[in-house]
């Protein structure tokens, strides 16, 4: 946090407002479970995705769209056939992991980045396409409109080698209510 505050005073203000970093990698379950969770969470709010994922863990299909079910089947097939060495992914570099995971139908760069961040705890991942990160940057840097992925990368470059932590703070900022302006009188 000291490095991030020094390199980016705007992020430093966010850190001061939010408090200590609490983004630790998930240590329960398997890599396969983590990738499945990332697929379920695609394009859903955290609360809705959490509810559906809980049902999925209980019944392995309830609440999932036909499309997401197909993605999970492709993932399972590739793992079963040995095309995706899922339990040794942690031995690869970030880019090698992204390349391996994006071979699975329905897994794009964002899903692979979530695996890197939340399962493996990789410290320098910047999900430039993530709406929450974009909204956090827009709010923190007082931008009129959402930043493009290129602008996210430019702003996030200052956070290296801790872009995962910077991203976490952007998500927390979006979840934090804006202060209500006081009226005079």
Task: Walk me through this protein's architecture.
With 185 residues, the chain is mainly alpha-helical. The chain folds into two domains: 2-23 and 126-175, Endonuclease Iii, domain 2; 31-119, Endonuclease III, domain 1, CATH 1.10.340. The protein has helices spanning 2-7, 9-18, 31-41, 46-59, 66-80, 94-101, 109-119, 131-140, 149-156, 163-175. Helix 3 packs antiparallel against helix 5 (66-80). It is globular. The mean pLDDT is 87.
Order of helices and strands: HHHHHHHHHH
Helical residues, percent: 55-70%
The CATH architecture designation of the largest domain is Orthogonal Bundle
β-strand amount:
under 5%
CATH class of the largest domain: Mainly Alpha
Please give the radius of gyration in angstroms.
18 Å
* Arithmetic mean of pLDDT: 87
What is the straight-line distance between the termini? 39 Å
CATH topology of the largest domain: the name is Endonuclease III, domain 1
Task: Please identify which CATH superfamily of the largest domain we are dealing with.
Answer: Hypothetical protein, domain 2
Major sheet details: none
Number of contiguous helices: 10
How many E strands? Answer: 0
- Give the low-pLDDT segments: none
The count of domains is 2
Shape: globular
Helix/strand/pairing category? mainly alpha
